[in-house]
Amino acid sequence: VVQLISTEILPYANFIPKEFVGQIMTMLNKGSIHSQSSSFTEAEIDIRMREEFSKVCFETLLQFSFSNKVTTPQEGYISRMALSVLLKRSQDVLHRYIEDERLSGKCPLPRQQVTEIIFVLKAVSTLIDSLKKTQPEN
């Protein structure tokens, strides 16, 4: 479904109502969250599948958070919306990590949360590199 959204819907976002695109971005944002509290009965395969799903959602947000060629304001709309959601999501992950790290004392944080913070930091780094390569007028 995320691949379908990525290839068949978001590239044509300037022809789709903004409210619908906003709902898609909200869904991708929710899908990108994977450091949720897991129960002891949750199977290891379920955890890996959840992590992979959240990574795909986050990568989709990253993919549409910048555009190399924006000729009209409508074409830049999807980039601005995705960038806004991506940055908010990254900020939430960073804040939660800092707070949890402070509260954990000497106990290590869950693997899922460490994986998520690493992925977010890599994504932000990729975004910064991409923005440096993008033409200033875009």
Describe the protein's topology.
Elements: H1 2-9, H2 18-31, H3 44-63, H4 73-104, H5 111-133
- State mean pLDDT (0 to 100 scale): 77
* Oligomeric organization of the protein chains: single chain
Helix count equals 5
**What is the CA–CA distance across the termini?**
29 Å
Largest sheet: none
- Helical amount: over 70%
> What percentage of the residues does DSSP assign to strands (E)?
under 5%
The succession of helices and strands, N to C, reads HHHHH
Secondary-structure content class: mainly alpha
Beta strands, count:
0
The domain tally reads: 1
Question: Could you please describe the fold and organization of this structure?
Answer:
The chain has 138 residues and is mostly helical. It has one domain. It contains 5 helices and no strands. This is MON2 protein. It comes from Pomatostomus ruficeps (Chestnut-crowned babbler).
What's the gist of this structure?
This protein is mainly α. Helices cover 70% and strands 0% of the residues.
Question: Notable features of this structure?
Answer:
70% helix, 138 residues, globular, mainly alpha
